């Protein structure tokens, strides 16, 4: 039977006959086929399969690893719906924990630890303690993860059973894979515990770095994650540790590369030599560029982490900007992230090359991407003063195409350029005024209205232009209505004769014919201001036409505290969302730089929550290599 046929919707009665048939079934072929169909239907949420619980439990006793795997999968999936029946499988599972085959012991252990029922939790404690010392490394590794799962299900039971001490003993195991599994379990437990934290000394950290080369990718990832619990006490040892980790940057696995970057970035906070830090971070460039040749999903992770790293060290990829130019077959999420990185890397030296590239992007058929490209051109004009004229010329070329969405995006960014460079590029206003018919989006309308109001004294027919917008005032969004109200008041202040009639009409609409409190409040504010200042127009001008706050691209950067925490979570979901881990996963501890004599002064200004109430892990366990878990 082909795999596709297993996914045909099955009836419980029909499958029960296959499982309980008295016909000769050599090597359990019929039962295996029936179980495959049951598992396939289970994955398709065919709830009729729940009726087969007793029949599947009968198959667990059969001496076949393949059958046991499918039965255990069924048991894990439906145990919460039928807890009483699931408990009947417990004796068989406990017997399998003593099987001669390490595969069956490990499989049974994994199954029991995945079933969050009280009877299973209590029955697992004693076998887990024994299996943590099992002769087979695969079983010991599975047991380590079993302790972490049991802790997630019933933490008090694990804490009073001494199982964490057993996991701690695995950290001096002769098998690197077992060591990494023990570290992964302890990291998972301490990350979610209010009373414990992982602390690794220099000698233990050195041993972990030494065994990295003997581990597979998963194990290396676990070890690299655990190394974040190592706090250097001396700048020299931090530098030595970073140097020893550097070869991992050449690894083919993206997770290992990003994990290595995370640890090295963490260690740089404890290195006093700035030139050594620059030398270390420059090594990030080639591996990050290599990751951009991976599949799109990995590329996206790499790009998001590049964006984060470049916020701190833009120089590491300053000469590799071309690798971030978009390809025709890049998905939109890759293209948008590349645009963000291109903007970060833009400088006076490469701005012309970047503008040519962005001009090409603005001619593509993907509307969302074109909008982002146009907006990037405008932001570059604000970022690089000497390139503002070139950016504006590029925007005007795009406006000349008269493509609606391009004109609208250009209008929005030109408004920001006017704010950045007041009284400098007003000559282009006439070009924008010729394209008013292309504006149908609220943001673009509001931007154009702001320009007309701000420069009403320099636009000859500013009153007529505003009157066109006011024709649909009551149908506009609140964003546009607020912009029209302010622009009309500005027109009246700068050209009283032409603005008097319009301002009275808009103030009447805003105060008497609207339900929006923001619009009404602003309308009353302007009305009272104009009435009370009738004898002194300068007061009104100072309030309405006051100097605007400086506009800068610096506001797009992450604040220092957030950037520090995110850099300690490179390679995780936190670095993808650019949000602290505590905002993504409830109950997860925020990472921070631990206080140390080696911590750089600029970093030591940040408060570090070092107090953990209740109890400390040091009360429970220590190893021959020193306390790995401590206060």
UniProtKB/TrEMBL annotation:
<comment type="function">
    <text>Adaptins are components of the adaptor complexes which link clathrin to receptors in coated vesicles. Clathrin-associated protein complexes are believed to interact with the cytoplasmic tails of membrane proteins, leading to their selection and concentration.</text>
</comment>
<dbReference type="GO" id="GO:0006886">
    <property type="term" value="P:intracellular protein transport"/>
</dbReference>
<dbReference type="GO" id="GO:0051285">
    <property type="term" value="C:cell cortex of cell tip"/>
</dbReference>
<keyword id="KW-0653">Protein transport</keyword>
<comment type="similarity">
    <text>Belongs to the adaptor complexes large subunit family.</text>
</comment>
<dbReference type="GO" id="GO:0030276">
    <property type="term" value="F:clathrin binding"/>
</dbReference>
<keyword id="KW-0813">Transport</keyword>
<dbReference type="GO" id="GO:0032153">
    <property type="term" value="C:cell division site"/>
</dbReference>
<protein>
    <recommendedName>
        <fullName>AP complex subunit beta</fullName>
    </recommendedName>
</protein>
<dbReference type="InterPro" id="IPR016024">
    <property type="entry name" value="ARM-type_fold"/>
</dbReference>
<dbReference type="InterPro" id="IPR002553">
    <property type="entry name" value="Clathrin/coatomer_adapt-like_N"/>
</dbReference>
<keyword id="KW-0472">Membrane</keyword>
<dbReference type="Pfam" id="PF01602">
    <property type="entry name" value="Adaptin_N"/>
</dbReference>
<feature type="domain" description="Clathrin/coatomer adaptor adaptin-like N-terminal">
    <location>
        <begin position="20"/>
        <end position="533"/>
    </location>
</feature>
<dbReference type="InterPro" id="IPR026739">
    <property type="entry name" value="AP_beta"/>
</dbReference>
<dbReference type="InterPro" id="IPR016342">
    <property type="entry name" value="AP_complex_bsu_1_2_4"/>
</dbReference>
<dbReference type="InterPro" id="IPR011989">
    <property type="entry name" value="ARM-like"/>
</dbReference>
<dbReference type="GO" id="GO:0016192">
    <property type="term" value="P:vesicle-mediated transport"/>
</dbReference>
<dbReference type="GO" id="GO:0030122">
    <property type="term" value="C:AP-2 adaptor complex"/>
</dbReference>
